[in-house]
Amino acid sequence: MLEFHISDALIVFFIMPSPEIIIATRESRLALWQAEHIQQQMAGLYPLAHFSLLGMTTTGDQILDRTLSAVGGKGLFVKELELAMLEGRAHMAVHSMKDVPMNRPSELVLRVAGPREDPRDAFVSNNHENLAALPAGAIVGTASLRRECQIRARFPHLDVRPLRGNLDTRLRKLDQGQYQAIILAAAGLRRLGLADRIRSLIDTEDSLPAVGQGALGLEFLANHPTLGNWIDALVDPATEACVFAERTVSCRLAGSCDVPLGAFAEAEGEILTLRAFVGNPAGTRIIRACQSAPLSQYKALGDGVAMDLLDQGAADILNACRA
Ligand SMILES: NCc1[nH]cc(CCC(=O)O)c1CC(=O)O
């Protein structure tokens, strides 16, 4: 009996090829941390398979001087990883969910790995404790229209200016004195061991997070024989329902268009609560909505919140942004 089992194992090891899974990733420090994190989890769960990383420098990473929206939006970070999968150079990709656009190839499946890291925005400064403590005219750096809108609305005396580059670049620009403070996602700072740079966390009431902020996305070839089942084990259903509810708002309102928009869902037991806003970059107009629904109704919840925003006149704001 024992011998029989041993020979079974030998057949698995020497005759069946061990499946090779290639994971595409951007090469920023944060992207590599995230991809390695997933690689380690999968290697632990599926020791007979081999997981390797394919690092890629995307167009979005190469463009540092113009604003992202001017050159095709944040989808640039993801598009080239998707192409690598479609062309057979990789089987799956790890993304920050925040960077995954709404329009995606139908040959690829998107799942959300859990648990979600802190979804809040972080206030980072060497001399000041929080936004309220900044003197009039202080320069605050952010790359996001969502953050810009919310800061200008509450603190019209601050000077909000664009800030591009990966996390290390942004922190360097702060340290060089080009900004009195910058706003970054807490999740990225924590993942890179830079939590001590966070002077204070901004309450979600004051800065509603971006769709998907703090969550990791796993995208893979739909026709792969085993990846769907394997990745299922990394998915946290509550986190996924939250993020998909948030993405539904974005899909209904903005598509892949870059507008000041935030959507953030939280699960309490089986109930999801989804808050969202749209506004103009100047922060002079903000429309908000909040609804709850059972976890399984995440899509209807996203639709409902989007409808609420549209009923309140969101289309005007969105058209002005597109113009
Ligand atoms: N837009 C870039 C980006 N994409 C994901 C994160 C942080 C990690 C996350 O939100 O999951 C960041 C940096 C930031 O916004 O400060």
TrEMBL record:
Reactions catalysed: 4 porphobilinogen + H2O = hydroxymethylbilane + 4 NH4(+)
Domain Porphobilinogen deaminase N-terminal: 21-224
Molecular function terms from GO: hydroxymethylbilane synthase activity
EC number: 2.5.1.61
Biological processes per GO annotation: protoporphyrinogen IX biosynthetic process
EC primary class: transferase
InterPro entries recorded: HemC, Porphobilin_deaminase_cofac_BS, Porphobilin_deaminase_N, Porphobilinogen_deaminase_C, Porphobilinogen_deaminase_C_sf
Role noted for this protein: Tetrapolymerization of the monopyrrole PBG into the hydroxymethylbilane pre-uroporphyrinogen in several discrete steps.
Quaternary structure annotation from Swiss-Prot or TrEMBL: Monomer.
Listed name of the protein: Porphobilinogen deaminase
Organism: Ferrovum myxofaciens
Gene: hemC
